[in-house]
Amino acid sequence: MKPNLSTISLPLLVATLISVSASVSFAGPRDDIVAALAAEAGVSQFSTAEGEAFFQGKHTGGKPEAPSCTTCHTNDPRATGQTRAGKLIEPMALSVTPGRFSDPKKVAKWFRRNCNTVLGRECTATEKGDVIAYLSSL
Amino acid sequence: MLAAALSAIGFAAAIWAGASLAARTGYGVPVSALDPVYADKCTACHMAYHPSRMGRENWSLLMENLANHYGEEANLDSETTLALTRWLVENSAETVDTEPSRVLAASNPAAAFTLTGTPYWKRRYEVIDAAVFKVKPIYSLSNCAACHTDAESGRKYPPNITIPKEPTQ
């Protein structure tokens, strides 16, 4: 028998949704990634403002044709980006692409590659944590 | 003129070499399906370039140098690198009987390969204003699939070309 939505009361539906979201919201893989970065950086909290400045800023030391995160990701993290080879990149903002920063291997790989391209070096744990904080805040 | 004559000779030679017209894959028919691992691993930064668009020695060279992949680090684990190299070589330009594959198989295997740097590519695309390639969503000469809707099939059938318009924001 198909459940008939019209017979489910609104308060019950709301209560169900709240309990479902509460049960999945703590200690997810994203929190583990952020906690590991915080431990490495020796800080208790990351800065969305620093993350924004880093993400939006121009850097030196990397490839001159890619001086900023925004070169490929655009200066609106909610927008679709494009690599220099033309491939589209899903928006970085967690609000638009909810799966972001949930796979530790993927996070490590792309910070390594992209920091090398933009800055010519690996990013520090503080820089990574701040950027994740910024992109999660949008 | 000389190039055209040479390519005509090459074309004739390919037929003479035993590739009968009837044995050819039909126009517009995909050459070989993309390996799922290749389609997954190699498309984060660029479209899936079909293996038949480059010679086997070029593929081997490229896969040996993923640490400096067109200026980017693109390392894969050794098992994946080995498996993909094998698949790319097994489906390289030499294995396919299409005009571009015949020409591209003959490219210099000693040098890093850039399709858009070949005389063949330049000749075929000289009618298109360079500015067209800068327009989003094309953005890059490497983005074949922006216009060739069947690029990843390895065919690039001319009627499947659509030059996109720049989106209005």
Oligomeric state of the chains? heterodimer
Average predicted local confidence, pLDDT of chain B: 81
What share of residues are in beta strands of chain B?
A: under 5%
Q: What is the overall silhouette of chain B?
A: globular
In short:
With 138 residues, chain A is an all-alpha fold.
Which descriptors apply to this entry?
heterodimer, A: 138 residues, mainly alpha, two-stranded antiparallel ribbon, 6 helices, 2 strands, 3% strand, B: 169 residues, 34% helix, globular
Characterise this structure.
The complex is a heterodimer of chains A (138) and B (169). A two-stranded antiparallel ribbon of chain A has the order 1-2. The radius of gyration of chain A is 19 Å and the shape is globular. In chain A, helix 2 packs antiparallel against helix 6 (125-137) and helix 3 crosses helix 6. Chain A is 51% helix and 3% strand. Chain A is mainly alpha-helical and 138 residues long. Chain A has helices spanning 10-25, 29-41, 48-56, 70-73, 104-119, 125-137; strands at residues 81-82, 88-89. Chain B contains six helices and no strands. The longest helix of chain B has 15 residues, at 2-16. Chain B is an all-alpha fold. The A-B interface holds A 63, 82-88, 112-113, 116-117 and B 43-47, 71-74, 136-140, 142-143, 145-146.
How are the elements arranged and paired?
The complex is a heterodimer of chains A (138) and B (169).
Chain A: H1 10-25, H2 29-41, H3 48-56, H4 70-73, E1 81-82, E2 88-89, H5 104-119, H6 125-137
Antiparallel strand pairs in A: 1-2
Chain B: H1 2-16, H2 36-41, H3 56-64, H4 78-90, H5 99-105, H6 119-125
Helix pairs in contact in B: 3-4
